[in-house]
Design a protein that fits this description.
Blueprint (H helix, E strand, L loop, with lengths): L1 H5 L6 H14 L9 H6 L6 H5 L4 H4 L3 H31 L12 E5 L17 E12 L2 E5 L9 E3 L3 E3 L20
Antiparallel strand pairs: 1-2, 1-5, 2-3, 3-4
């Protein structure tokens, strides 16, 4: 936001900072349903147009109980909005996730990332998939201990995102045909 306000005059950022701060505090947050200033202080910040009119004295000198009640309503509404949006974000994120659970004894393909290999052994043209490899232990649904070949000098615990199920119908160990689950492209 600051970059768009400053434009060509990069050294004038400090004079533009109050404008950007006001715009940020005054803008309504999509997830909260309120502006950040209202969530913290219980009131919407006054803008230049609000200051031109004679202020309503009852608004400025209301009772403290009304202020606290209003602030509690804002907090509860903001909390409800955040919970609603958290569910929406989770639903959207879950569309791209896959749930694959492996058991001890299953055979899987394992993908070696660059950081798993020593510098002198890494080659970007070399196949990064090894397997089929047997699962020795299920640590949790995301971590598995594998029976790696002796020539692989790396830790034998892998995250499930670096594994895919091995289907015994394919005899070629370097085939890419086993990399995807049914229905994936």
């Amino acid at each position: 936001m600051l970059r768009s306000v400053v434009g060509e005059n990069i050294k004038s950022w400090d004079s533009k900072l109050p404008q950007v701060e006001f715009a940020h505090n005054h803008a309504k947050n999509r997830s909260l349903g309120f502006c950040p200033f209202q969530v913290v202080y219980g009131v919407v910040p006054r803008g230049p147009l609000d200051l031109t009119v004679v202020p309503d004295l009852t608004k400025m000198h209301g009772e403290a109980k009304d202020f606290v009640a209003n602030l509690q309503e804002v907090h509860s509404a903001a909390k409800e909005n955040l919970q609603l949006f958290a569910v929406r974000y989770k639903t959207a994120a879950d569309k791209h996730r896959r749930e694959v659970l492996f058991a001890a004894g299953d055979m899987v393909w394992v993908y070696l990332t660059r950081d798993r290999l020593p510098a002198h052994e890494y080659n970007k043209l070399k196949s990064r998939k090894i397997g089929p490899v047997k699962i020795l232990e299920v640590i949790n649904p995301n971590a598995y201990r594998l029976d790696l070949p002796p020539n692989i000098k790396t830790a034998n615990v892998f995250n499930m995102k670096y594994m895919s199920p091995f289907r015994g119908d394919n005899n070629t160990q370097d085939s890419e045909a086993n990399l995807l689950l049914p229905g994936e492209t």
